[in-house]
Amino acid sequence: MRQFLRDSGHLIRPAVVLIAGLAAFLVIRTALIPKAFGKFGHYDAASLDVIRQHPISYAGQDACVMCHDAEAAMRAAGRHARVSCEACHGPQAAHANAGDPSAHKPALPDVANLCRRCHEKDAAKPKDFPQVVTAEHSGGALCNACHQPHNPHL
Amino acid sequence: MDLSRRDLFAAGGKLLILASVGATFEQITGAAPPSEAYNMADHWWGMLVDIDKCIGCGNCVRACSRENQVPKGYFRTWVERYQVGEDQQPQVDSPDGAIDGFPPNTRAGVKSFFVPKLCNQCKDSPCVQVCPVGATYVSPDGVVLVDKNYCLGCRYCIQACPYGCRYLHPDTNTADKCTLCYHRLAQGLTTACCEACPTGARQLVDFKNPRDPVHEFLRRNKVQVLKPYMATGAKVYYKDLDGSVR
């Protein structure tokens, strides 16, 4: 038995080195691969949360009408009923989510360009969509000189 | 201290084995994710685009750009204007992605219409299949996303996307694309482009929600996905799409 142990030393020593190498591989692999990797597929599931952390710029229609009753009522009665507030006023999450919304006063839309983008005549637009050739239509006057943008009937 | 080589190896071996067992155990158990009201398994997101409602105003492009801080000159969504003559060969323009709308349409005697484009959130996405490092994937709720930390910037996915929906972000040098406003979905908000669309030409839909109008929409309308022959499992459905659209 003793003879066997002494002779097999040259096998045990490489085996120990091999096991140590495997263990080192496992340790390094575990340290490098994120914990959530492979939870749902071949990717790091933690990145889902990272992407979700992105800040919101557009507050959403519900946030606007919580406070702006008069404008919401006027809009709901007119042709712009399905146009969200932020479609024209731009992203307002900073205004809506502020402790004091009046401190983040939104800038008024640039009427000269705003209305034109939707209502300038273009053959590619749906036929029943109200369109004008702005150069001929108003003689250079701004749209809101005649139209109330929240309910744009004359 | 008198430490022989044999003792040193033995101690080192024990330490390594203990450490690996501990680390493996930690990986298997992991830290439990925080429970939240939004359950990814209950959703499967996509979009409907109604060609006949799009007026080419570019509101979606501007909203996307501002919501996601898309760098200037790059687009996660854009609008194309098609002008198709009798030969069915389309002329397409999209000045600056239509971020400021379109110049007046001068060509007469052709059919013309707008086509909003965005990532088709493919179920079997070519971009996911070619990624060599697992940086891009389809999330459990059906959105194709990019992990910025894993992305090498090799651009395989940009070439693989049949719809041209990806770009290399000039600051991070990683692939970037439409996330279907993933940060908004879990909060119950619609995407920025849908929020800003004045005509309802775009509609975020949840195929797993039985009350979602998408089911009625798909039953009642003639719909099409882009490049169906690519078999990508695209989840952006276009209503009344012309055959000339590529």
Count of individual domains of chain A: 2
Return the CATH architecture of the largest domain in chain B. Answer: 2-Layer Sandwich
Question: Kindly state the mean pLDDT of chain B as a whole number?
Answer: 90
Task: Assign the CATH class of the largest domain in chain B.
Answer: Alpha Beta
The termini of chain A sit apart by 109 Å
What can be said about the biggest beta sheet of chain A? none
Outline of chain B: elongated
Order of neighbouring strands in the sheet with most strands of chain B: 9-1-11-10
Proportion of residues in β-strands of chain A: under 5%
Multimer state: heterodimer
Count of DSSP-assigned helices of chain B? 7
Morphology of chain A: rod-shaped
Helix content of chain A: 40-55%
Using DSSP, what is the number of strands of chain B? 11
The end-to-end distance of chain B, rounded to whole angstroms, is 77 Å
Radius of gyration of chain A: 33 Å
Fraction of residues in helix of chain B: 10-25%
Query: Which chains share the greatest interface?
Result: A-B, 55 and 66 residues
Number of strands of chain A: 0
CATH topology of the largest domain in chain B: Alpha-Beta Plaits
